[in-house]
Design brief:
The protein is built from ten helices and two strands; from the N terminus they run H-H-H-H-H-H-H-E-E-H-H-H. It is globular and about 50 Å long. The chain has one domain. By secondary structure, the chain is mainly α.
Amino acid sequence: MPTADLMPMSGVALYLVMLVAIAESLNRFRHTSPETSRKIVHIGAGQVLLLAWWLQIPAWEIIGASVVASIIALVSYVLPILPSINSVGRKSLGTFFYAVSIGVVAACFFPDRAHFAVIGILIMAWGDGLAAIIGQRFGRHPYHLWGNRKSMEGTGTMAIASLLVTGLILTAVYGATGSVWLVAFGVAIAATGLEAIAQLGIDNLTVPLGSAFICAYLSHWL
């Protein structure tokens, strides 16, 4: 394979290494809480698929990277090699599911309908990431759903972020139309519901996949 073909993926890999290194440094040397450093990686890692779309990276390379990341995530649950990502004080396979979801949406939508994959992952990155931050810091109206403790502030953040992510990307692809924002509204409702009922970090799988497929379905009809 020509070296030039590997350069885009190498750049993305370097970005991920730097992202994890920053989170680990903050956790180890600045005593940043594991939850905060984890959210840095959570939000930052979601931009990988956006970069892959922009750089036109083949699906098989994304899938291969997803497999490697999934294995590393599983190992890190047994060996504390990435405490800034997994030491969040609760039982969760969220990091593993996140890595898997990137590979699955890439396999389903790259390259011809890559924007749906990007929407699914960015909803997970920005929606869930910001919802956790806002909910923990400013959540004053808690509620419980199927054993999950949530806040109205966090749930509202998830809905708004999902709406904006979907609407902006669909506008970039199809142009500014009323149908675009109607689809975005439907996707936002679905993504928020999936995030609210998820257990043990499985929202990192169900939210991106559900959002991507629902968006593709609604876009087809509207």
